[in-house]
Hints:
Blueprint (H helix, E strand, L loop, with lengths): L4 H11 L2 E5 L10 E3 L19 H22 L6 H14 L1 H5 L2 H7 L3 H7 L5 E2 L2 E2 L1 H16 L9 H6 L10 H13 L14 H12 L12 H13 L23
Antiparallel strand pairs: 1-2, 3-4
Helix pairs in contact: 1-3, 2-3, 3-7, 5-6, 6-7
Amino acid sequence: MQTSHNGELFIAAYEGVVLRAYPDPATGGAPWTIGVGHTSAAGAPKVAPGMVITRDQAFDILARDLKGFEAAVLKAVKPPLKQHQFDACVSLCFNIGAKNFSSSGIVRHINAGRWPEAGAAFALWNKAAGKVMSGLVRRRAAERTLFEAGQYGLTLASDGDETVGVVLARGSAFPEGVRALQVDLMRLGYLPQGEDDGDFGLKTEGAVERFQAATLGLAADGRVGPATRAAIAAALARAGTAPQVAMYPLAGQAPDLPKAA
Length: 261
């Protein structure tokens, strides 16, 4: 089996689609990431500072990156899976790693024929560094719904987002986009280095509000839409540095300067 097109869109909706390489927020450098969570550790292409790709290239890279996770799911899970169950398992495996997935209670329940228990076990994988993350809570709930009911949810409603851009706010479901936003806020001095909360939490919201309050024409509401993204990119340009990515560009948007709304 292979991940379906809707499955790829589902994963991209939560990972983000980043067309300009950006650094790890914790190090300010390696590992560099591009596309749908792609780093050099996953294989070609090697990610380097300044690298820019197209949206189509991002999904081509994702399809290659998913092959190892698809193989891990097929190896770990013994009963045959329906396409939507397979897509949900690949999404989880891609996010938590093949080793964690293979040893998870989800796999044990599936192999024992305990399907309801397998669905419920998705919710257990909601922590990063021992801390419950609201973005992971939302992703696990969506994966469970996909696994149990075949509903792809957020993915199939994305056409509107591609027109107006995604708005980031507290509890955002786009962790890769949030991390990229935090990098830009750190470089502008609104978020202290190393104090990102790993999610769109109170620290990130406060940094956004401080930036908005200092920027003419922006409401200090802590929400990051196209206008705030464009203002962040402009502020970085004035500081003499190109934005890594204020939020991942969508179809029709430039790779580093989203359209203002």
